[in-house]
User: What shape does this take?
Amino acid sequence: MTNNTIFEETSQTLNILLNVEKSFMPKAEYIFRTFCRILGLSPSFEYNYAKQEVHIYYGTPTSRDYPVMIHHNPEAVDFFYVERNEQKKYQIPVYDKEKVNFFKYGKEYIPFLFSPQGPIFFSGETSIRINKDIIASAFYFLTCWQEYADDKEMFPGDRYDYKSSLQYYWNFTELPVVDRYCHMFELCLEYVLKKFSKQRKWPNKSLFALTISHDIDYWEFWSKDYLDSMIQFNKKRISTKPLKSLYKIVGHWLTKSFFYSPEGIMKKIKRIENLFYAKSTFFLLAGSQTLDKRQEYFFNPQIRTSLKTILEDNEIGLHGTKTAAFDQDTINEEFDNLKTAHFDCQGYRNHYLSFDYQKSFAILENAGFEYDSTLGFWENIGYRAGISFPFFPYNLKENKTFKILEIPLIVMDTTLYSEKAMKMSVRKSFKHIKRMIQLSRNNCSHLSILWHNTIFDNVDYPGWGKLYYRILRYAYKNDAWICSLKELRDFWLEN
Assistant: This one.
């Protein structure tokens, strides 16, 4: 085995018996396959009755004793069963926030859905039972069911209302709940089925993966007209905020006139990453459906040439315009623009994080993208789908898995500093991210970081460019595999 193998080699197949309603079987399979991919296992499924040795039982109560048994709540079957024949969206149920149960697991309190009160585990000498329906719970979060069921119709350019989520209501946005359910599953395997226990191995003996990416919303943020308007704005408020206004006027004039260049910013980003033997993904806007002409930089031949030269050894992804993930023709056109300009592209992230789980994944899949990395909340860093690892999203309409891989977006710079989001200082942000790095390290999981190119402008965002360097240095010292999104995607599917 090479050092690019994520798990120890095994020829064992994990046999799973599903004793559930027929309509729920594809959903249960989906979750078990997701767990097994994380753990490096090969699942095999039996239905209602077993023809061979059973390792895992998931279904209605039984008198038979299996090595690992997982509680199944039949109410989840009806909850997730939705007839799609002209069914109105508002008729799809949302899980009652007050029915969520929290139980301590290690040092954390984990939310469970469709689950009774009482301890998480019951163990015997040769078997162990999980008394919570971690399969139905995981399905709810991994499919972003609450967004699917929301009666507020999403329109192109919309973002899901974060304050409507269970994560916001119970304040567990920064807890990867699906990861924790998977760990419970793994713990049971280690307890009674030691031959299935695996040691995760990231490349180069790293303890976790850190993906890094940059959305190029603007090539040159401060156009002449925009700079002039900013100077005029600060002249008007110089009497109320003299120091800040003078700093902005003089700083911008000096920086933009003599020191600043978009090419220089891009090269600076690469120099930082080279210090840690890392390469990142750059998402480029290639559409004309924008409200801000500064975002149409891709259509400038000179800028395209600069981008191609600077990023020749980096991965390029499409940064779709706000409406692209809602319209097949728009996304096809923008994708073609990249390909026509001879940019090799496999990945996608929508501008503004505007995304409808069910609609957008279908559109991206039809367009031919290999992976997406849009799925994150704008208002708070953390886990929109409850998971840190790459995963295949689920097509609820057709009751099957999408072919496109999702690499969750977990940390974004604008979320940290924006007054409309977390409103954090540089210092507090670093402290926060260090904690998330340690959690990722302890759980051998994945963390993604998005840092815009414009934030490296020290006049407008003092300290934020340096913070990026500090994050990479801290992650590197803590045994991270720092990589692009494509590198993670290729690695995840090959191992």
The chain has two domains: 13-196, 204-222+260-494. The CA atoms of residues 82 and 92 lie 7 Å apart.
